[in-house]
Amino acid sequence: MEETAPAGATNPSVVLPGGSRGSTQTGMRLYNERLILSLIRRHRSLAKVEIARLTGLSTQTTTVIINRLEADGLVLAGEPQRGRIGQPSVPYSLNPAGAFGLGLMIGRRSSDLVLMDFTAGIRARRRTIYSFPVPEDIMAFAEREMPSLLAELPEAQHGRISGLGVAMPFELWNWEADLQTPPGVLGKWRDFNVAAELSRRFGPWPVHVCNDATSACAAELTFGAGAAYRDFAYFYIGAFIGGGIVLNGSLFPGRSGNAGALGSMPIMRREDNGETSVQQLIRTASIYQLERRLIAAGRPGTDIWLSPEDWSSFEEPLDAWVTAAAEALAQAIAALLAVIDFEAVIIDGAFPLDVRRRLVARTNEHWARMDRQGLTDAVVVEGSIGRDARAIGGAALPLLAAFARDHDVLFRD
């Protein structure tokens, strides 16, 4: 992940955990704040006594931290819950207006600019669709739409914006042939510094950049059903398929930020003429392959992107794509489980919910028929966020940097 400014630099009214630590004692306090916020996010609401039990902190320390978080506007006290004995218990939940993140999702066929609140609610969105991504066009889109996006948030809350996160594919220039773009067009990305360009346009906000599929995985882990699993592999199917890895309840980005590049996994692909070949998963289970099937059937490929919630009008090419993608995904799952015994494999993507359901069901059918000797079984399930996973993951980057649990805060000066 790339970052251009310290988290919390733009909001003097709220002490963000991403700010200056000062001492190990201060680091411990910030770590405990982040831990409590993470627990409340996972459980949706918790009383002080429950927080103390889960963290091992004393009730007095828990009370001090909760009071501070409530004063900062990050948590809200709920209605007292009366039990059988003792004082009523007050549950605390995250305040949606406690902090905001801006997200820019740069895809191969479209881009989204979103304003997201502290509980992953998208407050405003702007979208642009194109044949292929051009750096200067996307920067112009962000610059043009940002003022109206921010206008939908009361000005008094602008100081609670933690920063701007960018979710985008890495090394876009390598995919010109698959996207069938004019030669050299995507090569502009090779030397284009997205974080620097956005920082230049939008001033002091910290800018974070992360692989788009990794961002989607982070969104599933933080805001979706992924929190139920300690270890899982994650597939996100967009124009190109990508993925992410979660180990011990934490996102594992790898040394280069490219861990979980599952689209590059080799699989046996069955061609329409019955022959087989070894190809990367990306060339079977990606939506651009469905786009090509539509074009071959005499339909505009743009129907996929212009009708994001209903693909029923091109059922025949869709069913053929689902069958091929599911078979390829089952092979990839076997390869993944031969390396790490994941508890779950989660499949999500930029398609209608009924298509996701069919794809996961078909993948499970192929997976059940495979030779799994020596492999520890894993559940193969649907993701819970859907098309917005990359945009939510992007907007979550500055929020996670400022508020997520981070063991390193204990040791930073």
| SSE order, one letter for each helix or strand | EHEHHEEEEEHEHHEHEEEEEHHHEHEH
Count of the separate structural domains: 3
Output the radius of gyration: 22 Å
| Helical segment count | 12
For the secondary structure, the number of strands is 16
* Residue runs with pLDDT of under 50 for 5 or more positions: 1-23, 407-413
- Residue fraction in strands: 15-25%
- Largest β sheet strand count, sense and barrel closure: 6 strands, mixed
In order across it, which strands form the biggest sheet? Answer: 1-9-8-5-6-7
Shape: globular
| Broad CATH class of the largest domain | Alpha Beta
Q: How far apart are the termini?
A: 21 Å
Question: What is the residue-mean pLDDT, rounded to a whole number?
Answer: 88
Question: What structural class do you assign from the helix and strand content?
Answer: alpha/beta
Helix content: 25-40%
How does CATH name the architecture of the largest domain? Answer: 2-Layer Sandwich
CATH topology of the largest domain: Nucleotidyltransferase, domain 5
Which homologous superfamily in CATH is the superfamily of the largest domain? ATPase, nucleotide binding domain
InterPro entries: ATPase_NBD, ROK, WH-like_DNA-bd_sf, WH_DNA-bd_sf
Region (Disordered): 1-25
Protein name: Sugar kinase
GO molecular function: kinase activity
